[in-house]
Amino acid sequence: MTKFFVSSVLGLASLHGVMAAPKVYPEVIPGPGMPSLVELNTTTTELYEMGLPEGRDESTMFGTPTFEPRCGPAEYAYTKVDHIISCYNYLRKLGSRTCTAEENTVLCTAGEAHVYGVAWNGHTSSRCDNVAKAVLWAIDNCTRKDKTCAGAQAVPGNENMAAGATHIRW
């Protein structure tokens, strides 16, 4: 009887491990006119679980005469860095495709975070992987100990464009 009881408990415990629900992430939503996740053959889960690249080269990160990189700028601009990272991964997956920005254009939203592009001359575009590099600057330089982040940086190679990441209500 004791053997049966122990076997049953162990069986139920292993069944619980098998039936554990997968982690659910807030949906990654491309900005208006941006390619869908289906077009990129990716999923929200994949974008969240990719994390950040190893061995990042920040030598391409720079301010321009028209924009100095910044964190914040206000407390309520900060949001969970994991949401920003998922949008960074989305932009990075777009590679050499073009990201276009007007005065303030949302490129990606995830959870309570959005990543946006700003055109100083009213309209500009850059390679999306370069826009991702500007977002990575914010992740690397503006993430606080509580794992929240907000910041913006010039897009490498385009002095007329900056990209940033903040809370969606900012």
TrEMBL record:
PANTHER family given in the database record: CYANOVIRIN-N DOMAIN-CONTAINING PROTEIN (PTHR39603:SF1)
Secretion signal, residue range per the UniProt entry: 1-20
Keywords: Signal
Name of the featured protein: Secreted protein
Organism this protein belongs to: Corynascus novoguineensis
Domain of life of the organism encoding this protein: Eukaryota
